[in-house]
């Protein structure tokens, strides 16, 4: 009897997965691009061609790009299969790029298959592209060995330096289905002269559509810090004066060592006031004016706070222009002031919200050079 039980347990443990697909039967796409082509949906994929080396381990060879059109994403993917030797496998997608034109529509219909198909990769990073998204997935400098890793590497680096938050198919799902909060994605552009990709800032979405308004790169770090998001490293360059003959002397660069951020929503009927308190402990990373002494710290601290407050006000104006509630003010109202929330038409009333920034800076060090 004991042998029968052991055999039964072994048989259960040796059962295969119901959804197993041998790697030899699929071709894995690493990057995907989605465009609008004459009113139809266009899906382009970059597939690395891995070949075995006669002398040892497998080595990469140039990647290939395939494209197909369809009325829906699934139809375009089916048409892609007709062009491939094996079935297209999206389970290893690392980056999903939308063209600017497509993103100005509601992007949910193009993401629907990701949430329904268990083989889809929900960790795939999302991004927007100025112009044709299909052209960007093949872009990489000659120094890059793997084209398939170039765009992904850029986006990962931006997250680490607090110039971008981590945005993937999974994380934006909560924004798509929830009212009172919008989201941002990176926006990229292929440079005209060099075969490179440039980061253009964060694209603001409103009601699941690209608003056409971006947070420029110089404001991205502060906008993330105000939301309590900080990567491994955070640098901000601030203009603290405008009376120097040499332009660099008007600026200073700070390294954010520690961060504490909060947002308080104070409604008075339909008059909504939002107070952002952001406390930064910083090191002076760069001070081109070269006249920074210990006695100057209070003055520089005040100049930094004024400059960063001005940047915060620019960010507020951009979100209102885009009508994109990236700070989640509406969600806070919905959760803690539901009676007022029910009286509002948020897509119209968001632009009337009064936002106030209180940024406190504590200068910890001024660098190792002492004058």
Description of the molecule:
This protein is α/β, with parallel strands linked by helices and 371 residues long. The chain has two domains: 24-215, no CATH class; 216-371, Nutrient germinant receptor protein C, domain 3 (GMP Synthetase, Chain A, domain 3), CATH 3.30.300.210. It contains twelve helices and 14 strands. The strands form three sheets. It has an eight-stranded mixed β-sheet with strand order 4-3-2-6-7-8-9-10. The chain has a four-stranded mixed β-sheet with strand order 11-12-13-14, sandwiched between helices. It has a two-stranded parallel ribbon with strand order 1-5. It is globular. The model is unreliable at 20-27 (pLDDT under 50).
């Amino acid at each position: 009897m004991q042998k029968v039980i052991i055999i039964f347990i072994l048989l259960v443990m040796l059962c295969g997965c119901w959804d197993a697909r041998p790697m030899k039967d699929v071709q894995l796409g690493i990057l995907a691009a989605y465009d609008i082509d004459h009113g139809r949906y266009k899906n382009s994929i970059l597939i690395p061609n891995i070949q075995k080396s006669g002398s040892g381990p497998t080595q990469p060879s140039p990647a290939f790009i395939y494209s197909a059109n369809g009325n829906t994403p699934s139809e375009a993917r089916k048409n892609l299969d007709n062009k491939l030797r094996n079935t297209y496998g999206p389970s290893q997608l690392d980056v999903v790029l939308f063209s600017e034109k497509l993103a100005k529509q509601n992007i949910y219909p193009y993401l629907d298959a990701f949430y329904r198909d268990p083989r889809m990769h929900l960790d795939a990073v999302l991004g927007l592209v100025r112009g044709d998204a299909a052209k960007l997935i093949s872009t990489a400098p000659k120094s890059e060995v793997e084209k398939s890793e170039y765009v992904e590497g850029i986006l990962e680096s931006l997250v680490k330096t607090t110039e971008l938050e981590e945005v993937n198919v999974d994380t934006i799902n909560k924004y798509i289905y929830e009212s009172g909060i919008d989201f941002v994605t990176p926006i990229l552009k292929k440079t005209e002269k060099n075969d490179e990709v440039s980061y253009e800032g964060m694209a603001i979405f409103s009601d699941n559509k690209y608003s056409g308004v971006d947070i420029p790169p110089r404001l991205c770090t502060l906008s993330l810090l105000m939301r309590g998001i900080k990567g491994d490293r955070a640098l901000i360059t601030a203009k603290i004066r405008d009376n120097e003959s040499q332009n660099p002397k008007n600026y200073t660069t700070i390294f954010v060592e520690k961060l504490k951020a909060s947002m308080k929503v104070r409604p008075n009927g339909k008059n909504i006031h939002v107070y952002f308190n952001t406390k930064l402990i910083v090191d002076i990373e760069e001070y081109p004016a070269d006249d920074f002494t210990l006695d100057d710290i209070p003055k520089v601290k005040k100049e930094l706070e004024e400059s960063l407050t001005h940047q915060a006000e620019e960010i507020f104006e951009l979100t209102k222009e885009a009508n994109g509630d990236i700070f989640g003010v509406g969600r806070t109202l919905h959760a803690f002031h539901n009676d007022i929330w029910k009286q509002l038409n948020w897509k119209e009333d968001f632009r009337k919200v009064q936002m106030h920034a209180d940024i406190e800076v504590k200068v910890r060090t001024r660098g190792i050079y002492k004058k």
